[in-house]
Amino acid sequence: MTENKMQLEEQVLTISSEIPKRIQSALKNAEESKQFLNQFLEQETHLFSSINSHLLTAQPWMEDLGAMISQIEEIERHLAYLKWISQIEELSDNIQQYLMTNNVPEAASILAYMAELDIKLQESSCTHLLTFMRATVKFWHKILKDKLTSDFEEILAQLHWPFITPPQSQAAGLSRPASAPDIYTNLETLFCQLLKLQTSDELLTEPKQLPEKYCLPASPAIILPIQVMLTPLQKRFRYHFRGNRQTNVISKPEWYLAQVLMWIGNHSQFLDEKIQPILDKAGPSVNARLEFSRGLMMLVLEKLAADIPCLLYDDSLFCHLVDEVLLFERELHSVYGYPDTFANCMHILSEETCFQRWLTVERKFALQKMDSMLSSEAAWVSQYKDITDVDEMKVPDCAETFMTLLLVITDRYKNLPTASRKLQFLELQKDLVDDFRIRLTQVMKEETRASLGFRYCAILNAVNYISTVLADWADNVFFLQLQQAALEVFAENNTLSKLQLGQLASMESSVFDDMINLLERLKHDMLTRQVDHVFREVKEAAKLYKKERWLSLPSQAEQAVMSLSSSACPLLLTLRDRSLQLEQQLCFSLFKIFWQMLVEKLDVYIYQEIILANHFNEGGAAQLQFDMTRNLFPLFSHYCKRPENYFKHVKEACIVLNLNVGSALLLKDVLQSDSGQSQATAALNEVGIYKLAQQDVEILLNLRTNWPNTGK
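Given the sequence above, the corresponding structure tokens read:
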């Protein structure tokens, strides 16, 4: 410890002697830093004054230099401006020279380049330069376009364009000229040269547009050579279908629609075989036939837009126009492959005023049709009643006509361009279904007293058929797409709960669910009424059978042959006759529900009102079993393989009543003992009892009178 203490004291002495030296060194360094800083401050002050004096000296030079730079920039801008003017004039001179030497292809190429320059210059604020450029392009474009158009029209005339005759005769006409190869070479040359003017043509020509209310899809301008080819047909169309011509009849839209379809058909072969290869070589991915069709379609759209306001409030004329337009659209799309994405007649029919009128007229004519179909003499008769394999649904004529009407309406509106318009038509269809359901209900109420009659059954078949068809439609792709569109609309408007939206989105429910549920409810009510009617008759017929003397009937051994109880005959005859009658009048699926509902009630009735209300000796129990298993159950064997499975109460009651005495005693002991529920259930299952409860079996055992005499 002493040594340790000494070492520590030495360390303290050493450190205490070193610290003052360090402090002195630090102070010295600080003094030196201070001196350096002062020197730097003096230098900074000197430099600052030097720079200020230099800036004052240089200021006039800067001003002179700035003025010179801005002058240079101004001159550069003027130079660039002059270069543009020079370039435009040079290009213009080149076009002039090429035209003087009749080198049209080069002139057209230069004009196309000039048009591209015009597009690039659009960002410039030099309005005069832009005007000069546009005027130059316009000047040469007109000259070139006029020249090429006249040459192109001349070639087309040699080919007898346009083809007013059908394709067979025009093909013969095309093969006639000896110089056909030269004509087609010239045709290709001029076509390609006109294509080069496309850019400048789009710059200078404002495309014809129908008003915005028609919501036509945006589409590029029709290529220039096709425009030239369309010109004679446009003239013919306007000549015949405008003004006071006899062919311009507002009640005959089929005239101009058929004319346009005929023109498309007449020219399709030529466009596919002669023009399309030229376009494929030239580069632009354009379909010649579709461009041609698009040009003619614009004539139809203009004509429709002009005619519709004139006949909007004449139901028959308006309806005829819509019918003709729909036929035209169908042929245009199916035969000539016109795409749905292009402007078409459905855009015109979708305009708000026209569309609402269309909906109104559609509803009016549908309701008229429903009135006539329900008042027809054959309304409740099936068209196919004599053809068994076709008439499975036993559909009355009015229901089939109604569903055909709905199908036709679907065909009419399925090509509308927007989902919102289609949804409005879907609502119309749902309203019509509901209206038809109400009419069926009214007719059904008139027939309630004859619930087994032919008309009542026909109404039930109609309800079942409509419900089945709507359920099938719910899985159709078209209606599934509408369901998705409806989902988006409902989500935006918050018109459905989250649960309902979820069911629609997951396809658990469909657009027709509300209608189907109402129809199913009506179907169930009508079937219940029929079952109740038959059941009342059955109960009436079973009165004698209920009073049978089950206690005193002879045993099986005492009879040579078991035979049906005479008192059961009215009951079985009623069941047989009504089942046959309804099997003939109801469709298979409905009749199946009917007999199963009836059997369920009958099973409980016989069990409660006949079996539990009587006591049975051995002969009575055997007779009951014979009546049930050999006579009642087989009545329904035509409709299912094991009818006894639908009479579980009766079947099991017969088993209990007909157990031999020993088995019955053993079963009674097990049920009355404290051996537990599982042992009792096992004993019941062993003798074939699964439906009846333990207490029911005990009651049935007590209804037996053939117990051995035990002396009690």
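The mean pLDDT is 89. Try to locate this feature in the token string yourself.
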